[in-house]
Design goal:
- It is a single chain.
- By secondary structure, this protein is an alpha+beta fold.
- The protein is 32% helix and 17% strand.
- Helix 1 packs antiparallel against helix 3, helix 5 packs across helix 6 and helix 8 crosses helix 9.
- The protein starts with a helix and ends in an 8-residue tail after the last strand.
Length: 384
């Protein structure tokens, strides 16, 4: 393409233009040669005009470039195979992924990809309500179904099928209950087939229909086929991430900042033990003795490390982005700080010591996960 532009430039400034020889004055003929008979003047043939010389080559170049890009252009040298495989064509909120993994961990039959494919089939990840069926939220629960399976899993003070975390966990409980039933039926020899397929069939047609058919009933075949067709899109969710990367695959989990993880105050609305004010408890309090080691939950860069009035000694680590959303973790009430602003740390690296500085009733670690500027429940992000 550069060579083409260079040629156009040479033509535009007259370099190697054959017209230069054609228009150059010719030397007169020999003096003794008689003049030829006078001929009528011939019409001069005009050369290319300024438009042809200057604008047309540029238009041709632009047209060629546009066609080249439309056909795919140059390969992208910045494609990250890990990120591409992790998303696998799935465009879901990365904050859902820890909940998918937590919900699937309730029983051995389920994988996060199965729950994700179910939600995709049920709602396409849209929380719009279905006026005709009364289904609500991304997992399409009716009011009566929600009374059976719904809970306030994210601790925000409200149980709702329109709350994605609550809906994902409720779907996991429902599926695991069905998985337990079909496992018992297969153990007793009353049904045959793959447990995941039987579970999905029981979801679509009910356990009685599965029992009566002794296999996946015909009435559940369409639903099963649609969910299975979506599974490859979400297979990357089933691969655990050690938490050592920065800006890694969607839903990469965090390693424990203290050990063991003994929760004394969960994420959610609560009355502060010292101020008496009821508000959102933005993180999780982990019990730990004075001076216990605190470690980074994921590779990242320290963006804050100082003493504050409420949090006491506090550290904030920026872990990069997950599908365009920034992830940060915080560590508060520390007795001492072991890192400084600007320092890079690895997952599991020592960063400070447990304490009771700031507004605190005793030694513990107040740990937070901030996703794109919003506090989220740290529990499903943590690797046990």
């Amino acid at each position: 393409m550069n060579d083409e532009r260079l040629t156009v430039a040479q033509a535009a400034d007259g370099t190697d233009d054959p017209r230069s020889a054609r228009n150059r004055p010719q030397p007169p003929g020999p003096p003794d040669r008689p003049d030829p008979p006078e001929q009528p003047p011939k019409r001069k043939r005009r050369g290319p005009g300024p438009f042809t010389l200057l604008l047309l080559p540029g238009l041709l170049t632009v047209t060629g470039v546009a066609a080249f890009l439309a056909l795919g252009g140059l390969p992208d040298p910045w494609t990250d195979d890990a990120d591409a495989n992790a998303s696998a064509g799935a465009d879901i909120d990365p904050s859902y992924v820890p909940w998918l993994r937590k919900a699937a961990s309730a029983c051995s039959v389920l994988e996060p990809s199965v729950l994700a494919a179910q939600i995709d089939q049920l709602s396409g990840w849209s929380d719009d309500s279905d006026e005709l069926s009364g289904q609500k939220g991304i997992a399409a629960f009716t009011d009566s179904e929600w009374r059976t399976w719904g809970k306030d899993d994210d601790g925000n003070g409200k149980s709702s099928p329109r709350d994605p975390a609550d809906a994902i966990m409720a779907l996991g409980r429902r599926d695991c209950s069905l998985a337990k039933k079909v496992t018992e039926l297969r153990t007793e020899g009353r049904v045959n087939g793959d447990l995941v397929e039987l579970t999905l069939a029981a979801y679509a047609a009910g356990p009685d229909a599965v029992t009566e058919a002794g296999r996946v009933p015909a009435g559940a075949k369409t639903y099963l086929d649609e969910v299975q067709a979506l599974l490859p899109r979400y297979e990357a969710l089933d691969r655990e991430d050690s938490g050592g990367g920065a800006g890694g695959p969607a839903g990469a989990l965090l390693t424990a900042p203290v050990s063991p993880l003994t929760i004394t105050s969960p994420f959610g609305s609560r009355e502060h033990p010292l101020t008496g004010v009821t508000k959102l408890h933005t993180g999780v309090d982990f019990a730990a003795p004075q001076g216990a080691q605190v470690t980074a939950a994921r590779r990242g860069r320290v963006v804050f490390a100082a003493l504050t009035s409420a949090y006491g000694n506090r550290i904030v680590i920026d872990h990069g982005t997950i599908q365009g959303k920034r992830v940060e973790t915080t560590y508060s009430h520390l007795s001492s700080l072991g890192v400084a602003v600007g320092q890079s740390v690895e997952a599991g690296a020592p960063i400070g010591r447990v304490g009771s500085t700031g507004l605190s009733t005793g030694p513990h670690l107040h740990f937070e996960v901030i996703l794109d500027g919003y506090y989220t429940d740290p529990r499903p992000w943590l690797v046990a």
